[in-house]
Amino acid sequence: MSIQVQPDGPPSPTHLLSKLPIPDSQVLTINPALPVEDAAEDYARKLRQALQGDAVPVFDLLILGVGPDGHTCSLFPDHPLLQEREKIVAPISDSPKPPPQRVTLTLPVLNAAQSIIFVATGEGKAAVLKRILEDKEGTLPAALVQPRTGALCWFLDEAAARLLSVPFEKHSTL
To answer: Which domain of life is it from (predicted)?
Structure first.
C-alpha cells in the first residue's frame, strides 16, 4: 500500500476522465430510468459482456472515494451488502445517505481489481482515514477493499492526512 499527500488535493476523477480520448462505446453506464433492482442487473450484464472471462470482472484500475463514515461506492458500514458474495453489482434501497436507492459494485469485484486508487480530500475525512490506515479498523467498507493480486494506493490532500503519523510520501503536485 502506498499513501501520497498532495497539498492542494488531487484532480477529481471527472476532470481526469474528461481529458482522455475514450469513445462513448467504451463507457458503461447505469440506467437511471430502470427500477433499482433492474438497473443493477442491467449494469451487471453490461460488465459481464465488456469484461468477459472470469465470473467476477477484473478491472485494470478502479478510482474510489471514501466517506467520513468509511463507506466506499455505496457500501456502508454494517450494511448487509458487505456480505454479498454472489452478485457483482447490487441494488441498495435503504442507503443511509441520499439518494436512498443506488447501484453499487460489490466487494468481490473491488477486490478482484488489478489496481485501486482511493482519493480522499478534506478535513472531514481525517478521522476515518486514521481509523483505516493507522488503526487498521478492518470492518469499515473502505478498509475491506484489499485487492487480492493488485496494488492499493491512497491519494490524500494535507487536510485529509492531518491526523496520520504513518510514513507517507509528500508531493507538491501530481
So the answer is: Eukaryota
Asked if 159 and 8 count as a contact pair (C-beta separation under 8 A), the reply is no
- Please report, in angstroms and rounded to a whole number, the separation of the first and last CA atoms in the chain: 18
Sign of CA dihedral 162, 77, 67, 44: positive
Longest CA span, the chain: 46
**HSE-CB for 174 with a 13 A CA cutoff:** 11
Q: What is the CATH number of the domain that holds 14?
A: 3.40.50.1360
Please state the domain count of the chain. Answer: 1
**Domain around 134:** 2-170
CA–CA dist 147, 108 (Å, integer): 9
pTM score, whole prediction? 0.84
Q: Strands, DSSP E only, in 1-77?
A: 2-6, 61-65
